[in-house]
Q: What sequence folds into this?
């Protein structure tokens, strides 16, 4: 499966003529005793979230709380390109994020998506604007 996804990514890059493609990363933080929510709150209150949102290439950095799972927080983290993500990973903020993950003993599940800004005509009928 990983080889297939890599081939699809390479084909997409070739098809796009080398253009950068926006990437969205969904990170599901899971802990115990409300720690995932405490983590998200500390990230926001410490100013770390605002600093990440201000980084060049960041398109979105938002936390969401699943209605039926109080021990999980979903982070939707979107960037203009892999290069922007790579720059973000070299910042001092990553040390702060890593420390807070350890502090709250969080585990992560990660999904990555390459943005497709086109919406097929057959799907348009189901979108209420």
A:
């Amino acid at each position: 499966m990983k080889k297939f996804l890599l081939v699809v990514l390479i084909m997409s890059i070739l098809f796009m003529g080398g253009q950068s493609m926006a990437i969205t990363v969904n990170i599901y933080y899971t802990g115990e005793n409300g720690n995932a929510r405490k983590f998200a709150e500390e990230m926001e209150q410490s100013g770390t979230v605002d600093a990440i949102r201000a980084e060049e290439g960041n398109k979105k950095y938002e936390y969401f709380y699943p209605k039926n799972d109080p021990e999980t927080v979903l982070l939707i983290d979107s960037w203009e390109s892999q290069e922007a993500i790579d720059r973000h990973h070299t910042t001092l903020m990553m040390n702060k994020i890593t420390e807070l993950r350890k502090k709250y003993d969080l585990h992560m599940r990660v999904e990555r998506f390459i943005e497709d800004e086109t919406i097929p005509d057959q799907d348009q009928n189901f979108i209420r604007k």
